[in-house]
Design a protein that fits this description.
There is one protein chain. By secondary structure, the protein is mainly alpha-helical. Among the domains are: about 140 residues, no CATH class; about 200 residues, no CATH class. It is built from 30 helices and five strands. A hairpin with a 4-residue loop joins β4 and β5. α21 crosses α26. It is globular and about 60 Å long.
Length: about 575
């Protein structure tokens, strides 16, 4: 049973948190046209995304970014809609780029990848043997998280990707990876060899049965790592798309929920009918009905249908424009729109530059010995894919990227500059939410139970003169006499894992690394001054005068200023799920 933390004057902490969301819900309604205008712009710029993912981006933006936006917004400098437009544009662009490999069929890199993949009938034959699959030794050999997610996804008519990702504290990107790995390993184990091209089967068997990495598989067959990834991702998206079809078929017979299929079918028809301008007029007339549907239900697309969206980004932009009610951009939003492409690229480049040329070179060797500190759960493919996306979007030359220090070692250990930055940023955001938002009870019951001591401390601090600081103590006991609330390690690990999109074990290693860096870098966390709290902890205190999130200040914050205490330098403690 969950603990009930009571403040007699104001009700339960959870009730106060729910009350604090009233304004957020109003913003959600008022800014819906803004969100769809952003999605339209991103589609025109080559970042088309299906509607189910679009609403995930909106909801994640409101949950993770809104507290900071509400704090920084200055009404004397412009409207809230213009501010949200720019903030959501930056937020969604990064996430859509990260999910591109899953949101459409991949472009082949050579004739090998262009070969015909497995037939839909063969895939269905393996998957439809549901009882055999769910009780097989093959499933039992999967990691426990893979088993749980795959079983629930197949058995439960209501367990869609969005629900499962939230329940397990994962991003949808990571959830899809786990589903693809699961169905891939099961399909290979059940033996569908005659349905795959011979060269593809050998590669997939190496990845999903022998459990070799893409690099090891590439060396084994004399291929490039990129070709191996393309084969894996092409068949992975196909497997997942067919698994979705089977679940849709199952839901049609077992699901009692009353969904407006005419609206969903109409919207899907519009997305898949490029050039049919008359449909846009009809969609415009029904935009409120459609936007309400999208916020409640997931409209799924097969990989062939997603290919239509990929090939027609300008049409997708028009569809999102119609869903927005064709609300025109204000002059302020237009100004943001004109500048955002350059600003986003400059911001990403500034993050990379600040991490690689200001933070890492000034750290002791113990903090840049990546192979020692990051020994659990590294995903080198994921790190490299994200880095390659950045290099491609920024149109950087090979000589430029080769000149940056640390990149090769980071990628080899499942890291990149953005993951380091996002780990730092996620902790700052969590600390800010805990201090400024009444109580955040989002998460599983286990995490909520671990909140009990933290909640008591937060409430006590607010009752006695306000709350301006929190403490992080990743190893050992808190410092005697220190009264600032201590954020539980499991909460920090979950926050990093969800924000970065990595395993809990890897997130724990990132947490240890960030805290050691913070002991040398007083302003590492945006909006906070840090004080050393023993060898393994720091206190985060709100900066006077608020945040300075300029690019110039980024370099100042990420430049270490040793304070006479060096991190211990021992290997990060491996976190056990």
């Amino acid at each position: 049973m969950k603990p009930k933390v009571v403040d007699t004057a104001r009700g339960t902490a959870k009730e106060r948190f729910n009350t604090s969301q009233i304004h957020l819900k109003k913003v959600y309604v008022d800014c819906q046209p803004v969100f769809f205008n952003v999605l339209a712009k991103l589609s025109r710029d080559g970042f088309a995304t299906p509607p189910s993912d679009a609403f995930d981006h909106i909801n994640e933006f409101l949950v993770s970014e809104w507290p900071g936006i509400a704090e920084r917004f200055d009404a004397t400098k412009g409207t809230i809609k213009a501010y949200v437009y720019g903030a959501f544009l930056r937020f969604a662009r990064r996430r859509i780029a990260r999910q591109k490999r899953w949101s459409h069929s991949l472009v082949s890199v050579n004739d090998l990848v262009r070969m015909q993949g497995p037939s839909q009938e063969a895939i269905e034959s393996a998957i439809e043997q549901e009882d055999e699959v769910l009780t097989s030794d093959f499933l039992k050999q999967l990691p426990k998280l893979h088993q749980a997610i795959f079983t629930e996804y197949v058995q439960s008519a209501n367990a869609d990707e969005r629900t499962l990702a939230k329940a397990y504290g994962l991003t949808r990107y990571r959830l899809r990876e786990l589903l693809v790995e699961s169905i891939g390993r099961i399909s290979v184990a059940f033996g569908q060899q005659d349905q795959f091209p011979a060269d593809h089967w050998a590669v997939l068997h190496s990845l999903w049965s022998d459990l070799l990495t893409p690099a090891e598989t590439a060396a084994k067959f004399g291929l490039s790592t990129d070709v191996v990834r393309e084969i894996r991702d092409r068949h992975g998206t196909r497997l997942l798309a067919n698994l979705r079809k089977l679940r849709t078929r199952k839901r049609s017979t077992n699901w009692n929920h009353t969904m407006d299929t005419s609206t969903a079918g109409f919207l899907k028809h519009v997305f898949l009918s490029p050039g049919e301008e008359v449909l846009l007029d009809q969609l415009h007339d029904r935009y409120r009905e459609v936007s309400q549907l999208l916020s409640l239900e997931e409209v799924t697309f097969t990989d062939q249908e997603l290919k239509v969206l990929q090939d027609n980004p300008q049409w997708v932009a028009k569809v999102y424009g119609a869903i927005s009610g064709d609300s025109p951009l204000s002059p302020e939003e237009q100004e943001v729109d004109d500048a955002i492409g350059i600003a986003s690229a400059e911001d990403d480049s500034a993050i990379v530059d600040a991490i690689l040329n200001y933070l890492l070179p000034n750290l002791p060797d113990s903090l840049t010995n990546w192979s020692t500190r990051f020994v659990d759960g590294a995903d080198t493919d994921r790190a490299k894919d994200e880095w390659d996306d950045f290099v491609g979007e920024a149109s950087l030359s090979e000589s430029k990227t080769n000149a940056w220090p640390f990149v090769g070692d980071l990628l080899a250990n499942g890291l990149n500059p953005f993951m380091l930055f996002e780990s730092i940023h996620s902790i700052a955001q969590l600390a800010e939410r805990l201090i400024k938002v009444p109580i955040d009870f989002k998460g599983s019951s286990d995490v909520e139970i671990s909140f009990a001591t933290l909640v008591d401390s937060l409430l006590e601090q607010r009752e006695h003169g306000g709350l301006r600081e929190v403490q992080i103590q990743v190893k050992g006991e808190s410092i005697p006499g220190v009264t600032s609330p201590v954020i539980p390690t499991d909460l920090l690990v979950r926050e990093i894992s969800q924000y970065v999109g990595c395993s809990a074990g890897f997130a724990h290693s990132l947490l240890n690394w960030v805290i050691d860096c913070a002991q040398l870098t007083p302003r590492l966390f945006l909006g906070f001054e840090t004080e050393i709290a023993g060898q393994n902890g720091v206190r985060l205190r709100l900066e006077e005068g608020g945040k300075n999130d300029s690019v110039q200040d980024l370099y100042v914050r990420l430049t270490p200023q040793p304070r006479g205490v060096e991190p211990a330098g021992e290997p990060a403690v491996v976190f056990t799920d």
